[in-house]
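Onboarding guide, step 5: your first structure request.
Type a short instruction followed by the sequence, for example:

Predict the 3D structure of this protein.
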Amino acid sequence: MYVKCVFLALIFVSGSSSVSIGHIAEASLISSIYTTKSFNHNTLLNQCICYGITGNYSALNVFLSNDSCQFFVNMTLPLNIVINRSSTLYLLKPLPDSTVVPCCSNFTWLLNEIKSTVPTILSVNVPNALAMNDQNQLALIYNGIYLRLMYANLTTISTVNVPYNAYPLSYSNGYFFVGIYPIVSPYTLYMYSSTNLTQIVSRTNPYGGPQRGTFLENNTILCIETQNVPNSTILFYKWTSSSNFTLYRTISMPITNAYGLAKMNDEYLLIANTKVTGSVYKLSIVNGTYTTFVATTGSQYPMSVVIDNCGRIWIPITSYGLKIYDSTGLLLGTWTESTSLYDLVVTPNYDIYFIDQNANKLYYYQMNKICTS
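The system replies with structure tokens like these:
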């Protein structure tokens, strides 16, 4: 659900000057790139706005519930503004020109450009999964026991050992989440620092094997996808720090191979059931109901779910290749480059990384596209 934008004026006075700031109550801006700061509760608004203005930020979300603010350097169209009862959105700069939408709206052209690009290819022994942190560093799980961190050009930074049968990988809020597949007991959540690959969290749960994770609500809620038979369960933790987070809610789904996970703002999760003819489901975080978002046929099954900066959903499908959808489930394009495509990363400039497990290859399509329409 998208918020109806009603802009109210706020006059902020600092020294001898003043500035008019628009704001939207009970709303928040959603973007993958932001800075979070905490301040004193009694002067939270003033401190957040001062920090935003002096830091030359474009917008900020103010969260009175946990005395923090999110700061955004850029506002790019289309803006993803959603209803959030615990937040107020403040606009420190004018909204971007709605006639300029840097989302490569001609997606057929964009996909053809990607397909015609000659990739850089890195040989990797049994590549399993990919993820990218906020520093544009790529993480790779391979051989089921190694986690490697690389620069965007595929130069290795460091490599560490991870638990046996490490398979799925995801990133959120400074952490890499490493899952184990096939699942084993005790069911353990593994989280690693995205900067130096130090293991930060190792915690068990009784529900199932953790596969992937993401943060919600200004990084105050940790969401973990677990897998088990006959049900897979989504776990929600109230998050204070890596040493202080408490399970407070679960959602059970009658699927056995929950494996891919992506969030559509803070309202929905996309969950891939990685089995033959498995589907990708759209789960409402608010009420726990779900619907089929994309179904597969024959010997196909979805491996992961990736959402790009413009809300398009990229789904690697084993025995097929890659399918890309809009947020309603409308098919936008396909790519049959590989039938054993296991995972991929799509950057804001449409650089594409994907792994072909059968070929033991990591492919890097350097696009660096900045579209204006």
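Each response can be followed by summary notes, for example: The two ends are 25 Å apart (CA to CA).
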